[in-house]
Structures are given as structure tokens and as C-alpha cells.
């Protein structure tokens, strides 16, 4: 601003002197145009990132077949009435009810097949992308927001669980919203609206997955310490979240069953933690299918993360470093609390259970890149996003990086021509049943008469001696992606115990057994339908019908 000889104010706009007495705000059309143009560019960039996030999730939604946990959702939990779903949730699951309530209604419209059921998770996964932008913008402005949105859109781990018919995409979505309003509540010094929304989304995160309690506990404690002048409002918000947890407690206690999740603690917790780190950088890469992780795919992302941390330390300003501290405490706090629970005997440390830590940790990387000079920032962040995008495309073309193709396994097994047992990995039994024609059953004990034994194994185990009776001879061996089907037949029925069958070599640590038989003849079906002949299926109490 300048003053004229007569004492009138002169407004300076774009280095030019305006007329005496002019309103400086009104005389800034070029500045407004610059601001509007910048806003439009951000909006276009965000729209492109969201579109990319939608495409990578929905575009390949049906490529992979269901895996074990998804089959439990589709086959056991949600097909029946709403009341049956709630009962199955209690006896068959180890998660809260929100996803299953939504999936039950969703399946009525879109069906139980892969694309229809998984599209619910893909929708929540895509919706997390703009939430990532809002978190980044809250931490350090629009550039940080766009970088974090790009990470959320293309991170392989988030893509994987956006394409799984389970509750993990809901967990990430609501945990991200909880983080957003936690940050806003800190900035607004405890705005009632921000605290209320934090409580609502925290409660929804808890209703999606029990591990949401870890980030929510950290955020709640931080709010209580940071907003001492608003302690009553913070306590009220925290009480609402605690009430949700108490309401879920009876279900949680009823769901405790070592058969459901006891397998998690079988390996070293530190090995699983390392696998989670690889997963956060490069997705599941197959180790969820009883294979070791592929650390080679995580090298480029790890280098990018290191560069981001270096930039944050070297060039980060006070706001960026403060935001990084908050995000690190939330992200690593989730992992630390999970390890404490493991030390106390509740060891459920596995990559997907640690997903609430992923968005906060990605925010730290976004803050590091936003601390770099603009061009370098875009180069580094764009390079990491480009790598992840290329990797996402590569996964769609690489069966060894996908879930096992149980759809093709079912096709190659075909309809039973004789009484048969199918032996494979314990967690493969339900997917095989899902994709087989007819009504196969899983059995856990007893003696059964068979003419055929089909072993679905890892390829390296396919050549091992099957230890079957001499009556059985190998008649077929087929490679199916990362699995191999070997078919054995006998000239007549042979009695075999389930215990013997489970000992057959598959390359997996524990096997399951599925029993199948030819469909009844047309005459028998008609007789059964007219109640003239009682069906004789011969299934023991230890066999579970599909």
C-alpha cells in the first residue's frame, strides 16, 4: 500500500498503482484468476487420481478367484436370512458385524460372485483416495494431499484388500476418516463438530475390525492431553467410542476360537512383522497363499521411503515435522500396541490386521516428498506411483502374485466320476468346494470308501510319492498356475482313513480333505423327489455340507 500526496490510499496490484481510494481486495482480478486456476488444477489432478484408483480396483476385480476367507463370507455367512447371517457371524467369524451387514444387503442386489461381492470393498477402497487427499492437505497443504491421494490410490496392499470380500477396506476407510477428524480437532482446538465426527468414524472403524481400537486409543489419548481446555468434550466423544466397544464385547467374546485365528501365532512374530513391512510396500506378493514374501518387489518403494525421510529431516519445516511426528506416533503406535498384545498372549500380528497403520505411515512419506523442491517432489512421488501402477498391472498378468486360481482348479477337477477325495492345503478346502459342481463336503475324521484321490499341491511336491495303497495309480498331472493337480484312481472302492489322506504330500504345512461323489442318476433323483427312496449320502457328523 502507498499514500498519495493528498493522504489517500493507493492499492498496489501486480506492481501497478491503482486509482486513489480503490479497494485493494476488489482490484485483484489477476490474483483471483491465479488462485482459481490453481484450484482447478488441483481439482483436475485429484479427479484423475481418484479415477485411477477406481480403475485399478474395479478393472481387475474378477480376474482372481475367491480365496479361503472370501469363500467363508460368500458361502457360509451371508447367503441366508439376516438372522442367519448374524448367527453365522457369531460362530464362523472373528470380526465385528458392519461389513457383513452391508455385504448381506449388497449381495441381494449384486450377487455372490467375485465381481458383485467384491465391488463393495472396491467402492470403499476407492472412496479412501479423496480422504487421503484431505488428510495430506490437513497436514501440509494441497501438494501433500495430492501425493498422499496418489499413494492411497496405487499402494499394492490397499489395492489387494480393496479387491477382497472382507472387512479390511472398510477398516482402512473409517480409520482414515477417524485420523482426518482427529487432525482437524487438534487444529480447531476441540471443535464440537470435529470431535463428534471423530467419535462417529472411530465407532464405525471399530464396527469394521477390532484392531481399529489401536489407532483410536492413541488418537483419543492425544486429544485428551492436547485439548485440556476442552476435556469435557473430549471425554464425551471418547465415552461414545468406548460405549461402542463395550457393545461389541459380547460378540468378541463369543467369537474367540483358536481354530479361527490361532494359526496366526504359529510363526515368529518378528517374521510376521517383517512380512507386514514388505506387504505395506509391495502388497501381499503371494505369501498369504502359504508362500514366502517377495522382498525384491519392495526394493524400489523402500528406496523411495528412505528418500522421503531424508528430505523430511533435511528440508522439512516445523509444520511438516510436527505432522510427521503425529502420523508416526499413530502408525507405529498401532504396531507397538499389537506387539504388546502379542506379548500378553493375544498374538494376532499379521499384515492385514496392521492396515490401520498404513495410511498414517504413508502420510509421513507424503510429508517428506512435499518438503522437497517442487519438481523433485513431483519426480519422487510420481516415480513411486508409477512403479506401483506398473506393479498393479504386472500382478494382473502374473498368476504367482495372485490368489491361487481355485476357479480353474474346480474346472479341471470337474464333476466326480467316482467316489473321490480331494486333498490340498487346509485353507484350500472351502474354495475348492465353492468352485466344484455339485455338493462336495469337507471331512475331518473317519473312514471312507474311494476310487479316486486327487491331490492339489505345490508344484515341487507333485513328484513326491503319494504313499497310497498300490491299487491307486497316477493317471493325470496338470499344472494350474501356482498349483499342480495329480489324479490317482483305483479299479475298485478302497477304504482310506481321513488321517491317511491328510498325510499325503502337498507341500503345505496342514492339509484338508474334501469328499465328492457322482450325482445320483435321473431315476434316483426322481425317486427321492417323490419320497419313494430315502437318499443315502453316507456323511458323518464330522463332514460339513456346502
Largest sheet: 7 strands, mixed
List how many beta strands DSSP finds: 11
C-alpha geometry: globular
Strand content: 5-15%
Residue stretches low in confidence (pLDDT < 50, at least 5 long) are 1-27, 523-546
Number of helices: 21
Relative helix content: 55-70%
Strand order of the largest sheet: 8-9-7-5-10-6-11
Structure in words:
Helices cover 57% and strands 11% of the residues. It is built from 21 helices and 11 strands. The strands form 3 sheets. Strands 8-9-7-5-10-6-11 form a 7-stranded mixed β-sheet. It is globular and about 80 Å long. The model is unreliable at 1-27 and 523-546 (pLDDT under 50).
Summarize the structure.
The chain is of the alpha+beta class.
Structure characteristics:
546 residues, disordered N terminus, two-stranded antiparallel sheet, alpha+beta
Structural topology:
Blueprint: E1 2-3, E2 9-10, E3 12-13, E4 16-17, H1 29-58, H2 68-77, H3 82-92, H4 98-110, H5 114-140, H6 142-154, H7 156-162, H8 168-187, H9 192-208, H10 213-226, H11 231-255, H12 258-261, H13 269-282, H14 299-315, H15 318-343, H16 358-371, H17 374-396, H18 406-413, E5 420-425, H19 429-435, E6 441-443, E7 447-457, E8 473-480, E9 483-497, H20 498-502, E10 511-516, H21 522-529, E11 543-545
Parallel strand pairs: 5-7
Antiparallel strand pairs: 1-2, 3-4, 5-10, 6-10, 6-11, 7-9, 8-9
